[in-house]
């Protein structure tokens, strides 16, 4: 369908919990197509619907040659083992900070036909599943940073040319 414009940190849609998808029709399929087209660009691992201005529980991923999506996802399993990983976000461009994430994760949801879907992953895919699910709950990765790192991220964000201002 189309590569959609991104929303940036400061836009209220990024800090609002998303509504579940309840209608599975052509508009749902169009959203899925847009999410897949937008995440397929080079350098993108994941994309949540609010990042393109849609406050619905949907995300796409593009990790290690695996391109897919999940509607109404819920994190159902996280490994106890965690690791500090460098993390960035399309809605917080150019800023990368260490974040603690589970090494493996499992997400359950549905596809565009309302059929069950389970996605499990380790490493970058696990990080992506956690990051995108956070987006759907109205949380940016910046909230997971230590206090000092969060202050630094806020300073850098406000100095940037992309920061969303009212």
Automatic annotation (TrEMBL):
Catalytic activity, reaction form: N-terminal N-formyl-L-methionyl-[peptide] + H2O = N-terminal L-methionyl-[peptide] + formate
Enzyme kind, highest EC tier: hydrolase
Cofactor note: Binds 1 Fe(2+) ion.
Annotated residues for binding of Fe cation: 89, 131, 135
EC number: 3.5.1.88
Gene3D superfamilies, A to Z: Peptide deformylase (3.90.45.10)
The entry's keywords: Hydrolase, Iron, Metal-binding, Protein biosynthesis
Cofactor(s) needed: Fe(2+)
Active-site positions on this chain: 132
Molecular function terms, GO-annotated: peptide deformylase activity
NCBIfam families (alphabetical): pept_deformyl, PRK00150.1-3
Similarity comment: Belongs to the polypeptide deformylase family.
Role noted for this protein: Removes the formyl group from the N-terminal Met of newly synthesized proteins. Requires at least a dipeptide for an efficient rate of reaction. N-terminal L-methionine is a prerequisite for activity but the enzyme has broad specificity at other positions.
UniProt name for this protein: Peptide deformylase
Organism of derivation: Haloechinothrix salitolerans
Origin organism lineage: Bacteria, Bacillati, Actinomycetota, Actinomycetes, Pseudonocardiales
